TrEMBL record:
InterPro entries attached to this UniProt entry: DNA_primase_core_N_sf, DNA_primase_DnaG, DNA_primase_Znf_CHC2, DnaG_bac, DNAG_N, DnaG_primase, TOPRIM_DnaG_bac, TOPRIM_dom
Swiss-Prot/TrEMBL catalytic activity: ssDNA + n NTP = ssDNA/pppN(pN)n-1 hybrid + (n-1) diphosphate
Protein's name according to its UniProt entry: DNA primase
Gene: dnaG
TM stretches of this protein: none
Amino acid sequence: MSLPPGFLDELRTRTSLSQVVGRKVMWDQRKSNQGKGDMWAPCPFHHEKSASFHVDDRKGYYYCFGCHAKGDAISFIKDTENVGFMEAVEILAREAGMPIPERDPRAQEKADKHTELAKVMEQAVQFYRLQLKTGAGAPARDYLDKRGLKESTQERFEIGFAPDGWQNLWDHLTGKGVAPDLIIEAGLAKPSAKGGKPYDTFRNRIMFPIRDIRKRCIAFGGRAMDPADNAKYLNSPETPLFDKSRTLYNHAPAREAAGKGAPLIVAEGYMDVIALSEAGFEGSVAPLGTAVTEHQLQMLWRVSDEPVIALDGDTAGLRAAHRVVDIALPLLEAGKSLRFALMPEGKDPDDMIRAEGAGAVRKLVEEAIPMVNLLWSRETEGRVYDSPERKAALDKALREKIKLIRDPSIRSHYGEAIKEMRYDLFRPKREAWAPSGGGQRQGGFQKTRGKGGWQPPQPPVLTETKNSYLAAGNDASQERMRITVILAMLLRHPSLARDFDYALERMDCHTPELSALRHVVLSLRSTAYDAAYEEAAERLGYETLENLLATPHLRIVPALKEAADEDLVRMTLAEELAKLEAHRGLKAEIAEAEEDLAHLADEAVTWRLSQAAAAVGRAQSGTQEDNTEYDLGKNGARISKSEREAFAALMAQIGHTDSSD
């Protein structure tokens, strides 16, 4: 049945999701805020004691942090009442006092055609299943036995066999009274170009029924028994029932398993999915002969926030993983991402299970790497960055990829992660100083062996250096303290985060813990402190959060006192963020000056620096300058003694300790 435009939107507007859900759950009064429509309860879809089921009444959506069930009022009625979509709509419409529109004859005709085609497909399933048990199906049965597929597994996945011959299925279905045009429209047969009888699409193949989320058979996949066949695997053509870019093999059983806590694993083909499911990974699906599409990604994210892409450990598998990354980057949303479990070289999940058991695959799935790591490895693996030009090329390539991310918060976090990996790649490697023994002398220095291999030595730290202001890291420490204060204030007053979201995204967090807390603060669903703290603790870990908030300097911040009003907090936030921004600008100016100094090439730059040095000298000394002149650089510029001294001081401040050059 086709509904008029706007009907469902009006129905959702008139329906209170918290009232619909409230008939099935007991709200947690401690975590819930009824006035703001922020409600929490134990999940009605799986057995638990904690209140991990969240209802946002204003947005009209629910989500369970335990089993990942999510949806709106219609899907809640469907799943809890075990009814279809239209029945759920009718239930809610009656409660909201909205009349159900009259049926659209064309929509009904289309629905009837789909029903007819689905019935034809079911007849084909039964035909192929019977053919597997005949004498003609013996080679297929032998093949399945060699692949370790027990008879119960074959029954579960309804595996069949299409015998060799041109009209076996055609003759069977027409003999049952099925209209020829329905057989062709279902993709089970093709018209003859020579004017003869239509011929079967699948011949001499092991058959895998492909079912949609409603568990209707909409297509088949067939594996060739003849090694010389042009196509090892063949899928049904596009039909009114089947669009391979919007379909996943084993979708419905995988969704049910993922709803009970199983990981959602995306494998490459039918046999991988069957092997994974039989090994206990029942939340396994596969695309149908193509790379994962945008539509399939959206389908995966409706089932799980972080599906695991488990591809073959060969060059083709790695290329497929990289294609998935490129497709996924523009689609990323907060909490929606992918992880990648790459099999050892030359193996697929089926091989891994048969050779090493389910435990080996489970370990790979549990240790699946985040998408940003795969993006980084693609751009850096096998390359040497021994010149500024190569490093610049890497920076450009990564910037172009990160630009594809539409969500500004995720784009910012990707930038931070890439920056940390870049720092690890390019930073000078240092080892402990070895004055004698235990190492190898190279180039006049003693080198020691560490985890990272042979690395340059690190000289002993002088007492004067230890006691200096810069060595103490005061600048960075003050920044970390300021960031901690900002995040602690926002955790206590979550409603203010939206007012400062842009400044928060620009903050250069110094540690993964602070970066993670910033991400939590930006995505908090609750504006109540207790609920916000619980949510942050669940996502960061209680110990991590308590360690962050146990810093002594937090106790003396007035805006963090329990009695602090919101105006004081807002003013303090604005001041602290402004100080961070000012410091960011100062660092940028120093970096720009360093770059200019590193590339002195003309008299104008040298003159500008000499004038700046002179100004610094006059400001610092306040004395009559000595007019004795000195050469500066190779371009003939001359400065006075006081200017030279001030210039040396300026160079020392920005890291050039030898000003004689």
